[in-house]
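Progress narrative, Year 2. Work on YkgJ family cysteine cluster protein from Haloferax namakaokahaiae advanced from sequence curation to structure prediction during this period.
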Amino acid sequence: MHVDCEGCAGCCIDWRPVSPVPLDHERRGPRAPLDDTYNLVPLTRDEIRNFVNAGYGDVLTPRLWHASEGGVEIDGVGVAAIDGKPAFFVGFRKPPKPVAPFGLDPTWLRACAFLDPETLQCRIHDSDLYPDECREYPGHNLALEQDTECSRVERVHGGERLLDSTPPSDLRGLLLGPHALGAKLFVHPEPERLDGVIERLRTRTLTPEDRAEFVGIAVGSHPGSTEVDQRRWNDARERALSAESWAGEAIEAWEAAATSLGEPAIGAPLSETVEVARGAPETPGWN
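Result:
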């Protein structure tokens, strides 16, 4: 597997506002995401724990799904569940940033909290925190014979992004079925605590307390089980809630500076002042 990522970052940004064709691959079938985040990266329990320990609990956010049947009703919405407990992933928040992918002029588009909007490179790429899902992309898609973001970018903007479509033989993050439970797919053990949360998830108004609740449960989960260790849940929740990382603070700054999604990012602040000045690591660039 070999990809050309320079000037792209299609898997790290929500480029639907500038796409001439619909991009709805995540929103088909009876279990579409309740949120509107594009290409959310599902993290494993251990990765979530590592981000919390590193002080990045404030950049993590949950994903839950619709359920037309067999789910649990919360806020008047059918939510996908396992044994009556709402199921969820945990991934990265995506604030609006002034990015210029595919040769476009700088445009306000939602992008991963760790993406440098100028180089379009990941700020944690060379660190121990870099998730398997990102490290192995698009290997999981290729292994499952599913379309990739590389191919979508090729179809819309031309060029060659996916240079070799042979999936790696040593994929680590591809957890499916029972193996995913408690390791990448988690359940909230107390659905009654979620009154109001589902509506806030759908309207992008989740509170820090909302997000920390799910982060704590993920860290407290047991692989292969729906059981949650209460002590680890509470500890991780409090640590996520108290996090004040450069990435979390930058999210607030980008949201305050942004205009409408898909609009030219005229006069947008530089990532040097929004992210690097708050402690973000530099990226090497492509030269």
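The chain is about 25% helix and 10% strand. The chain has one domain: 2-278.
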